[in-house]
Amino acid sequence: MVERKRIDDKTGTSTVGHEWDGIEELDTPMPRWWLITFFASIVFAAVYVVLYPAWPLVHSATAGVLGWSSRGQLAKEVATEGTRKAPIEQALARVQIERLPENSELFQAAVAGGSAAFKVYCVQCHGAGAAGTKGYPNLNDDDWLWGGDLKTIQQTLLNGIRQPGNDATRMSVMPAFGRDGILQPAEVQDVVSYVRVLSHQEKPSEAARRGATLFANNCVACHGPQGKGMREFGAPNLTDGIWLYGGDRDTLTETVTNSRYGVMPAWGHRLDPVTMKMLAAYVHSLGGGEAFVPETPAAVAAATSNPEAATPVAQPRNVQP
Amino acid sequence: MSSPDDLAGPKQKLFEARTKIFPKAVDGSFRRLKWALMAVTLTIYYVTPWLRWDRGPYAPDQAVLVDIAHRRFFMFSIEIWPHEFYYVAGLLIMAGIGLFLVTSAVGRAWCGYACPQTVWTDLFVHVERAIEGDRNAQIRLQKAPWGPAKIAKRVTKHGIWLLIAVATGGAWIFYFDDAPTLFGQVVRGEAPIAAYATIAILTGTTYVLGGLMREQVCVYMCPWPRIQGAMLDEKSLLVTYKYWRGEPRTHGLKRAGPAARRPEVQDQGAEPQVGIPSLVALAANPEKTPRIGDCIDCNACVAVCPTGIDIRNGSQIGCITCGLCIDACDQIMAKIGRPPRLIGYSTIADETIAGEGGEPMHPLRRLLRLRTILYTLVWAGIGMGMLFALGTRTRIDLSVSQTRNPLYVRLSDGSIRNTYTVKVRNMENRPREVEIGLSGLTRAAMWNDAGSRETAGSTVRLKVPADQVARTRVFVAAPAQGPTRQDVTFTVRALDQEGGQDTDENFFERPETGQ
């Protein structure tokens, strides 16, 4: 290896001074524009370091004279987004929930907002897809314990189910027929047989016939003479294919013996009215939403004449069986 | 022992100073070809955004428009949506293969004639010549001390360069928005900041790259010469100095005299010159004749070269094959009464044959060889495939995705409901009504989020706005009895006269027990 620089005859350029197997490297200088670009980059970096956060220190980094930070930028963007959403939220605050579907754009916005809120407050019980689980209703289906139109859903959300201290909450308690000795264990089995006949899970039998009599005496007050349930009491329809806790013999025996009644928090005092409307719209949009039917013509007149009354006043439904 | 001087080595320069090039004006067939191509390419660039194309009330009426805001690309009657980007990819592949084809056939023709760097540099060089004069005047001006005249010329030159640069940057933004509207906005100062930033950046790059850096871009910055150099072979057409005809060079026509020229290359059509010994005599006694080549070392080919190279050193990275040296040399050959094309487009293979005294193949015949034919076939194949796809594509598109949480819902009557998100893309620039149907599922009822189970039917109707995607949730209910996973096919059909339909496959899911 030759450690001496020399001028290459052919090009007139000096070599860098080393050689392998007769191959030498020419020390061709960089073009001037390349050097200028290189120095310009260094200047740019120096300016950047002064203007923006750059050097990491022990607990934070140098701030830079412009005061820019990624957190600050995020806060600004969040504020911008809030400003963008403000008109939609104002419109949602004004509209009566049952009239929401008339404005399809607003309804879509409400469903989108409700979907987001659902993922924060509701998935713990009802699941991410709102499909529920044993004891927690599936909100996708067409079976509603308390009713499935927008206004009813909203009221359920506002006041919750069986919330103590809330006059407007959904309230009903099924008696524990077996545990409290209203029915003997054999009679419970007869009622179970009848209920399974009602839902076409069993063929009519002697036990079911006995159960029919017991049902007529003890259950029709809430579940109705045909067992189709009553929404006033949140009493489930026993003739359809949907079972909140299960429709098999063991589960039904447990239900009749010890009774079942679920609870849900009242969200009215925790979430703002706009979020409540959005949540109701989202639950309604899942596929089982029912059309709103005004209760009386007088109520419609009152609602139309007073559009400011967007939040419905809940009716007390303290019904004890 | 080495002396201290040797150890220190020769004094190194930190950077390589640019040797300024003053290309001389030249006229000839290639220069005229360059003029024509420059006119065509610049016209295409500046005029295209202003062409109008009526697409009806729901779409822009600009013939060529890259509508980033609405994610559309319009090119005359063709409208490309983002999901059809493979057309653009296909065009890029065609451009790549086209470049292979051009390069393997005619060398770096792209560099010499059509490359934007070449076109704008050429334009800037012409402006420079119009103001500062031709090569010699420019060199004199360069050496002259600064005075009012020199300042005036320089200011004028850079001013016009900047105007061209602004026009270049300004024209670019018109491809991205309605040109007349945007022009008004730019002039009134109401255009978006992105428009001004784009103009500023492109003005800067045009001025610096086209006006100041010129051939340095081609030699140092551009990767093409390296790639294209690798794609050349001995049968590619290149600007070639016919060394076998030009060497040995000599200065001055008079000293050598035409008598000494090689008889075998005497042009048959050239007029016989007075006082020349007969060809027969020369042929009879060739050894005694001092042989000299046609090159008189006048350096005309070097003076006109826009990258300042000497083509007589052979094919090199600085050569953009613009052919101006051919024009310059032809003029000299005409003056000294020698046949033209001492420098010309030729292939290395032909020059080798010619150097050995053989008869070269016509360069154009070299074009037809396996490599070029294969490139052409691939290129044309992709083009035909794209044209076919373009001709048969539907302007309505269906995309169905199943809601998987929950996968199915049991309804109170015991039947099973699945939920799907259906997107219908209407790529026509008018609103259309479509019907979504389903096949593969018996006794199915279908409704969407605008209806309910009571209004369910076998199809769902949907209005799709012009040039938009409509999205709806579709609920499908069917009896619980059946396979746990059943293939279904969704179809969308346009209800207007023109029709058109699309399908998408999906599944209908049921619980395991089927109960």
UniProtKB/TrEMBL annotation, chain A:
Transmembrane segments: 33-55
Organism listed in the record: Sphingomonas molluscorum
Listed name of the protein: Cbb3-type cytochrome c oxidase subunit
Cofactor: heme c
Protein localization: Cell inner membrane
Coiled coil location: none
Domain of life from the UniProt record: Bacteria
Keyword Manganese: no
The entry's keywords: Cell inner membrane, Cell membrane, Electron transport, Heme, Hydrogen ion transport, Ion transport, Iron, Membrane, Metal-binding, Oxidoreductase, Repeat, Respiratory chain, Transmembrane, Transmembrane helix, Transport
Family: Belongs to the CcoP / FixP family.
TrEMBL record, chain B:
Keyword Coiled coil: no
Keyword terms: 4Fe-4S, Electron transport, Iron, Iron-sulfur, Membrane, Metal-binding, Transmembrane, Transmembrane helix, Transport
Highest taxon of source: Bacteria
One Pfam entry name: FixG_C
PROSITE patterns: 4FE4S_FER_1 (PS00198), 4FE4S_FER_2 (PS51379)
Transmembrane domains' residue ranges: 85-106, 159-175, 195-213, 372-391
InterPro entries membership: 4Fe4S_Fe-S-bd, 4Fe4S_Fe_S_CS, Electron_Trans/Redox, FixG_C, Ig-like_fold
Organism expressing this protein natively: Sphingomonas molluscorum
Ranges where the 4Fe-4S ferredoxin-type domain occurs: 284-314
Name of protein: 4Fe-4S dicluster domain-containing protein
